[in-house]
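Sorry to interrupt, but I need a hand with the structure work. Leave the record below and I will have a look:
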Amino acid sequence: MVKLFKPQSGKNSRGTRPSKGVSKPSPKKRLFNVSTSDLTLHNQVRLHEHTNIFVKGALPGERIDALVLESGKNSSTAVATRITNASEARIESHCQHALGHPNTRVAEHACGGCVLGYTEAETLLNLKQQVLFEAMHKVFGNRYDNNVWAEPITSPMQYRRKIRLAVDARNAKQIKVGFRQLNSKNVLPISQCTICEPALQKVLSALSQSVTQWHWLKSIGHISILKTHLGVAVGFHAKASLGHTALAAIQGFGDAHEVIILVNDKGAGHLSQWQSAQSYGQLCDDKWVTPDLCLSTVDNDLYPVTMEDFVQVNQVVNDQMVKATIEALALNKTDHVLDLFAGSGNFTLPIARRCSQVLAVEGVASVVEKAAYRAKQQQFDNIEWLAGDLASSELLHSITDFGANKMLLDPARAGAGFILTQCDLSAITHLVYISCNPQTWLSDAKILHDKGFVLRRVQLLDMFRATHHTELFSLWVQDN
């Protein structure tokens, strides 16, 4: 692991002095022989000479030429067009469509996916950990040292079990299905994606061969591919009603490649038999029925999923994260566990198998309804499901009455500041906080610290390999 250090006084959290009075550059402006500073908390590389310009395709400590892509009120986005003095951490990107690969001759035309693929995975995790360590030092001073850091949880290369493909069929002779280009709505045609699970890659390759004949794709907004417990599901999100020719082609593709075909209600609108309770339906005997799709927990229990739901796309890292949570909470059969921002059961079901009672709270009522139904089918009788807004006081009474002694938080990017501030946490002995936003995690960590909790463990998770995303695991215990 990288050696961690404390920022010097008089400098900002990135170790550079902030610039003053820097003018805003115009889009398409070219910058020559400029140097980059360290990563920001959101893992963006900033120019040393222009600290309000963030550069894609660069690493800390490099000299580059760059092209400004966008210019906002407070910051601008640029892309490195030439590396004149490369970092030792730079490698050739694993994907021919990505920044940092020799085939990507025009940087701004690169795929917008693996934007940090030109860095070794372990090196990138070290850089991210360094950034968070420095930010923690600003908040907590010398309270926490290297001893709280656990080794990061790494990701395999082929990790994604869900992808969303954009469609551009404006030119019937050049239909494009793939991913958006860097900082653009333009579609980059993709037939191979090195980060997809093999089952998805097989379907992606088949789609890329079929779409050239599908002129009706102008009615499709996007295509989602998801690996479920029943196999791979392919969802066609239509902007208008699809005709018989299109639906026959879609079903033929499903039969030929043994995948589950789903179409949204707008696309299937010409048929009278829509019986699906979701926005997507599966055709069965000329009727569109509700798809019965699930994902598996670490115990091989099932929790429901739709094509529109948020899912942890990296199953390998997700399962290790769940196991780490179970271990950190030190669960036993007398525990009452509060699972906030619970989703449809990814953590809830494994926790329920190891404790007395779980109160699972989720903001989306339809998700709670499906999760409760599926859990009951599997004979879970120790879970209470609640739907409600955890950024308001509507559930505080129910949460307090539950009498939890252990707690899990897995909020969205906005964090969990309100509920942590308002809840009486004095009975909580172990609290696991999973975060996808270091900025809000730091704010919430300060709340926990002020309420008498001590950070025992923090760990990075490579949930989205080769991207700016930071996922982190933390364990807090009462300081007594």
